[in-house]
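Run log // design_07
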């Protein structure tokens, strides 16, 4: 008598879209882990701080805390904590929103802009290292394929 239990496979098990999804997640997690380590080891900062600075760099006039949290897809509380850390380092400035006194507009200081540019250069190098063995035509093709996927629900 066999101890092997016959189990049904779930619908879609082994389907190419599930395999691709799992592979994309695995690659993203591995890359993110390396980026987090690099930011900490080389700059004494964090990936979330870089993300906030990148969002503010893209909007030189500044962003309200609400718009910043929506741009980063995180809660206001998470953004507030990171912005306070960046303010303490002199990298971000906060001014009252002239249209809503209850809200603040945050923007990079001149030093924040200089620091962001240093971080962005390193970030680009790290990403380039991840993809260094891939031909640009394959990268472009992959980007085109993935860009056709919906980016919001």
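design_07 sequence
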């Amino acid at each position: 008598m066999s101890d092997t239990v016959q189990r049904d496979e779930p619908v879609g098990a082994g389907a190419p879209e599930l395999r691709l999804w799992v592979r994309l997640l695995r690659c993203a997690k591995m890359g993110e882990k390396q980026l987090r380590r690099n930011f900490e080891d080389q700059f004494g900062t964090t990936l979330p701080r870089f993300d906030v600075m990148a969002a503010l760099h893209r909007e030189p006039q500044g962003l309200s805390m609400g718009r910043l949290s929506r741009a980063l897809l995180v809660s206001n509380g998470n953004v507030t904590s990171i912005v306070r850390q960046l303010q303490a380092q002199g990298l971000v400035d906060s001014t009252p929103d002239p249209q809503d006194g209850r809200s603040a507009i945050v923007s990079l200081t001149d030093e924040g802009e200089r620091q962001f540019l240093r971080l962005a250069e390193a970030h680009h190098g790290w990403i380039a290292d991840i993809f260094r063995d891939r031909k640009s035509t394959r990268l472009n093709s992959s980007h085109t394929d993935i860009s056709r996927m919906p980016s919001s629900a």
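The chain has a mean pLDDT of 90.
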